[in-house]
Amino acid sequence: MITSLIHDSAIISPLAIIENNVEIGPYTIVHDNVYLSSGCSVGAYCELGLPSTLAEKKELRFGKNCTIRSHNVFYAGSQIGDSLNTGHYVCVRENSIVGNGCQFGNRSDIQGDCVIGNFTKCHADVHIGKMSKVGNYVWLFPEVLLTNDPIPPSTNLIGVTINDFAVLAAKVLVLPGVVIGKDSVVGAGSVVKENIPEGKLANGNPSKIICDANILRMHNNPKLKGYPWRYRFHRGYPADVVSAWLNEFHEK
Amino acid sequence: MITSLIHDSAIISPLAIIENNVEIGPYTIVHDNVYLSSGCSVGAYCELGLPSTLAEKKELRFGKNCTIRSHNVFYAGSQIGDSLNTGHYVCVRENSIVGNGCQFGNRSDIQGDCVIGNFTKCHADVHIGKMSKVGNYVWLFPEVLLTNDPIPPSTNLIGVTINDFAVLAAKVLVLPGVVIGKDSVVGAGSVVKENIPEGKLANGNPSKIICDANILRMHNNPKLKGYPWRYRFHRGYPADVVSAWLNEFHEK
Amino acid sequence: MITSLIHDSAIISPLAIIENNVEIGPYTIVHDNVYLSSGCSVGAYCELGLPSTLAEKKELRFGKNCTIRSHNVFYAGSQIGDSLNTGHYVCVRENSIVGNGCQFGNRSDIQGDCVIGNFTKCHADVHIGKMSKVGNYVWLFPEVLLTNDPIPPSTNLIGVTINDFAVLAAKVLVLPGVVIGKDSVVGAGSVVKENIPEGKLANGNPSKIICDANILRMHNNPKLKGYPWRYRFHRGYPADVVSAWLNEFHEK
């Protein structure tokens, strides 16, 4: 059953499946083979399930309670978890897998064939190149760019890997095939050409390992360690996850 | 009275206030509590006054003669002066205060809780982080990014301050809390980690003070000093402002 | 004759000329003096031929078989060759000349008064400043920015020149007036302040000439030279062009 919250001007394919309690804004287009789970809200001027020869007749599926803001474009063929929260002008290409609780800021560009874990947050203008692998609870700040072609142009793409809890600050550029370790932090404006081990702070162009990330202190409270950030920053994460983080902290 | 220049396909809340002599383009949405002063022109596919829990029922007010181009998104709760001129795909979040005569280029992103003075011009892809304070007659060139979180992620944001007449060239990245002095100039591609005093030229990653900005000469006329730019560049500024600049110049 | 593939919700000026076999998507606006040749396909929410005082009543012309994806904005006054292929949210300003077979990725911004050759490909977020001259078979990767104002703000713009077959990797910034030679390659994240001769690899901020580009080998096949790339990469180019490239290669 199609609920009553679909705006009259929205164009909905009869081959799209829309659960109850879904809102769709004005002028939005939903193509064939789109599945919108209950609780999803889609803003105006979005195009969902754009057909592509790279994902012929493949489903674009949104889990429960996703919030897709205006002017987004999602191609056919991706699987999106629950509670994705997008800004405006976001584009997600074909055949990506996105976990639960993720956030894609304004103009984020997920270029396709990517795997993104749970609760990973991309700020504005984050560009995730094809074949990137981004873990859980990762933070990608504005204008972070993950590349994939070592000798461009070519068809030999090697995606970047970003492990859990890593933080890439604004304008960080990561070269193809680089692996960024769990709990590591990359300073703003860095160009990362070599792998970064777990728990390190890297900075510069080209980036160098500076120190263990857990040496950094909060600027407004020098008694409080900045990293791993999950011991001190909990806004927007589920209670059971936060509880596990606090247990881990107290056991250390 | 609603003028006749509102396109039939525009969706206008009865709780929006639209003065005379306003144009609104096709498919644009104007929500509750938006105030459009006379002489404003809004392009197609814009969404003005997007509701937000961060600005519950707060007015989004545009002064006279603003030109809002297509595909813009303005949230509720900001106060915009007269004659704002935007490019396309611009997004302005909640609770910002913008002066008169400003310009926001294509895809500018004003992230909210910002204060921007008069006649400040942002080129394309300028990203102004939450809590930034940008003065009057400032120039932010393409892909300038003002950040706000010293130890991300956190809730202890410290905005950047850009003083009057400062010029930040293309792709400049400014770290949280940095203060950029009046009449200073930052070279393209710089990463600014420390304050820049008044009237200096800074450059590099990390940026260093190179010299007084007024040493720079015009490339096509070495007799003419490049800075302060207000002594030589006047296009688009009001006659009384230009006249005051010229008086200041002749008194020096 | 207007074909039947124009969506009912599209707004088409009677002064636009639309050849047979053209598709126009929902909610798109086509203004006066737009010429769409046969085989063109235009997505949703596009605005083509936006009027401007910089191109009064000038034609915006698209050659055959162009694919213009959703949310694009093209101003009046540009001449576009055959088979342009755009991503989403692309903006092309007034009075540019674009050859055949070009590609403009998501959010590409062609700022006007540019000349772009044939088969030049811009990835996402490429920003081509006013008065740039970009040759044939050039590759501009994500977030490449071509500037034009040596002492900003000014009206003495000097465009960048990029010669045939050059490759600028991700986030490369090119300063005003710089000339980048044929077959040259610029490494990711570089800031190019000086001219680069033909066939060189340059890298860094500021960029320096590192070596001849043809020293680079494919990462997955060290026997294969990476550059000139036209000897090894042919996807998407016409058969006669590829054949000429292979002849050139075998004659060397």
Q: How much beta of chain A, percentage-wise? A: 25-35%
State the end-to-end distance of chain A. 52 Å
Ranges of chain A where pLDDT stays below 50 over 5 or more residues in a row are none
Shape, per Cα inertia axes of chain A:
globular
Describe the protein in words.
3 copies of one chain form a homotrimer. Chain A is mainly β and 252 residues long. Chain A has a single domain (11-215), classed as UDP N-Acetylglucosamine Acyltransferase, domain 1 (3 Solenoid), CATH 2.160.10. Helix content of chain A is 5%, strand content 31%. Chain A is built from 1 helix and 32 strands. Chain A has one helix at 239-251, and strands at 11-12, 17-18, 23-24, 29-30, 34-36, 41-42, 47-50, 60-62, 67-68, 73-75, 79-80, 85-86, 91-92, 97-98, 103-104, 109-110, 115-116, 121-122, 127-128, 133-134, 139-140, 145-146, 161-162, 167-168, 173-174, 179-180, 185-186, 191-192, 200-203, 208-212, 217-218, 221-225. Chain A has a 10-stranded parallel β-sheet with strand order 1-4-7-10-13-16-19-22-25-28, with no helix packed on it. Chain A has a 9-stranded parallel β-sheet with strand order 2-5-8-11-14-17-20-23-26, with no helix packed on it. An 8-stranded mixed β-sheet of chain A has the order 12-15-18-21-24-27-29-30, with no helix packed on it. In chain A, a hairpin with a 4-residue loop joins strand 29 (200-203) and strand 30. The first copy, chain A, is globular, with a radius of gyration of 19 Å. Chains in contact: A-B, A-C, B-C. Chains A and B meet through strand 31 of A and loops of B.
